[in-house]
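Letters spell out the chain; backbone shape is given numerically. Both lines appear below:
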Amino acid sequence: MEVKSKLFATFLILISGCSQSSANDPEFFGANFSLSSCVQNAGNADALDDFMTNKMKIKAPLSPELSKYFLNGSNGKVWSFSSPHGNYAVAYRDDGVCTVFIKETDVSKYISHMNDSLKRISEKSGWTVSTDSIPMFAGEKELKTYQFTVVLPDKKVRVVMSAITQVVGNFQVAFSTNLLSD
């Protein structure tokens, strides 16, 4: 019950203080969904499963046959959904790596919303972020990455964002997390 309360409180913090126009922006949803699913639930497969099943209302993970495309040879679970905000997949590998894949997005707006959300959460919840601002790092013709750390009250999480500005391949943004030991 405590985990559900923390998830709900974090979700409220994510959306509080946002203008109505931001809340309707697909990139706003993508940034906040990335944080809610993979940072908040880093290292906790059961909490992510609960989040995807009960909060996101996804009835079941993808079949093993479809999941293999997201797990890259690892064991784990993958959830996928389409919404008015875009097409998403969330992969959680048994080694604790969680990745949100976003098929198509305006990467600069996604990064801008990510920066705004991280600042808002840090001010309201005590998260500490190792960067003041995520730069526009995405490559035009090739995937580029940017890495930072988020310290929550109960864990330390590495975030690796990968992005390309053009729609090439199966996804445009991959937002991956894993727990760091103290």
